[in-house]
Amino acid sequence: MKFAKVFQQVLAEEQMPEEWKERAIQYKKLKKRINKVVAELESIGISKEDVVFHYDLEMVKSEIHPHLQVKISPLEKTLIMDRLSSLDYNYEIVPLKLRELNAGGRDSTAPALDVEDVQSVAASSAASVLSAVNPFDDSGPFYELKISLLEDTKFFQVLYDEIEDLNRFRTEQEAEIANNVEAIAHEVSYATVPKMKKTDLYVWREVFQYYIECEIFFSTAEKKAGSVDIGQSKERYLKFLQMVEDSRVLHKFHQKESVLAFGEFKSLNFQIMKISNYQTFNSLAVTKILKKFDKQTQLSSKDIFPELIISSNEMNILNGSIATDICLVISSKLLTIVPQIDDYLCPICCSIAFKPIRLRCGHLFCIRCLVKLRRKHEDKCPLCRNQCLLALTTDDLDVAQMNYMKMYFPKEVREKELENSREILEEQHVIDPNSKACLIM
Ligand SMILES: [Zn+2]
Ligand SMILES: [Zn+2]
């Protein structure tokens, strides 16, 4: 199916708000503008066979100015001068030397070539024109026409304005989503207060664990790091909903704020997918329309135009995905409300690092694992091999961290304490009583 049709279908979707349609790239209208550029080139007398030395776009205070330099034959020169004389164009025609005749080529974006005796041909004498003629070149003297067209200026200006408006729209949408995230975060904080009677701390932890695992909008796996495409996002989002459903975790909610917040969390994700899809298609529409422009006019803009607008505004629909930005907001503002156990594991026993000892090197372990290491006369940190185990005292117990763990992971802490005391009891039976002092630590 043609892109124009696909794009139209995306915009015609039932849930697409009217404003979104109005602010989208006007692909069809832009296509018509390309026809006008082609007609303008023809009306001046520039044919598709002419070699374009240089096509460039310049931006002056949000205004786009295209410049065209093209090689024309003596016949075309007469014709073009004839046509342009009655029109209000800004142009220049200069004779070319042989060196330049061999250089350049269609679609060349190389800098303008030097031309000899830069002067308007209209003002130059027949003699100076003749001096540009290579006596061994029987094709006659060629000229370079430098001109600023009108219709391509309009085409790029309209496209630029539409992109700028979409950039503003994107900022508005991001702000709206950030507000929604904040509202949900507020409710989740309320429902997950540690030590509160009937707290939903563990229920939300489970929900967020599934969410993080599904990597809906952002992949953290090394090989495919970066944002994921919208089709993948939809798939992963459905997988997340399925996991939630299968685990029946939602039935464990105690607080009505939690039920409310989960409903809003679902709509939020749906909204992100919709916005992300909208942005992707608009960005694609820009790429496609530039390709079409290049194909029909034989001018090359598909690289220079995106470069120009990205350099003018880094926060651009052509530059990076909105989903990635929003994903960061969700991670930092919402998911962090409920700490995950993965961030508090002891690297040796792989269970909660309770009671936590922070070594001088900065690494954190549970006290039991360090006691066992010391017993084996180990003196180095197992992670960085820093020699800091011997200097260890009870002062190294990270009390703040310990209290935090008690507060947010009461079940895991209780389990670990039980396990520790079981181990100590077992050891007391088999180990020399002289070493007890070290075990009590
Ligand atoms: Zn441990
Ligand atoms: Zn270390």
Model description:
Strand 1 (52-60) and strand 2 form a beta hairpin. The protein folds into three domains: 44-151, no CATH class; 153-338, no CATH class; 342-440, Zinc/RING finger domain, C3HC4 (zinc finger) (Herpes Virus-1, 2-Layer Sandwich). With 441 residues, it is α+β, with helices and mostly antiparallel strands. It has a four-stranded antiparallel beta sheet with strand order 1-2-4-3. A two-stranded antiparallel ribbon has the order 5-6. It has a two-stranded antiparallel sheet with strand order 7-8. Mean pLDDT is 85; it is low at 104-138 and 436-441. The chain has 16 helices and eight strands. It binds zinc ion (2 copies). Residues 346, 348-349, 365-366, 368-369 line the site of one zinc ion. One zinc ion binds next to loops. Residues 346-385 form the RING-type domain. GO terms for molecular function: zinc ion binding. Residues 1-307 form the SPX domain.
Helix and strand topology:
Blueprint: H1 3-12, H2 18-23, H3 27-44, E1 52-60, E2 63-72, H4 74-85, E3 91-95, H5 98-102, H6 126-131, E4 143-147, H7 151-191, H8 201-214, E5 218-219, E6 226-227, H9 230-247, H10 256-297, H11 304-312, H12 322-333, E7 356-358, E8 364-366, H13 367-375, H14 399-408, H15 410-430, H16 436-440
Helix pairs in contact: 1-10, 3-7, 3-10, 7-10, 7-12, 8-9, 9-10, 14-15
Bound molecules: zinc ion (2 copies).
One zinc ion (ZN) binds at residues 359, 361, 363, 381, 383-384, 386.
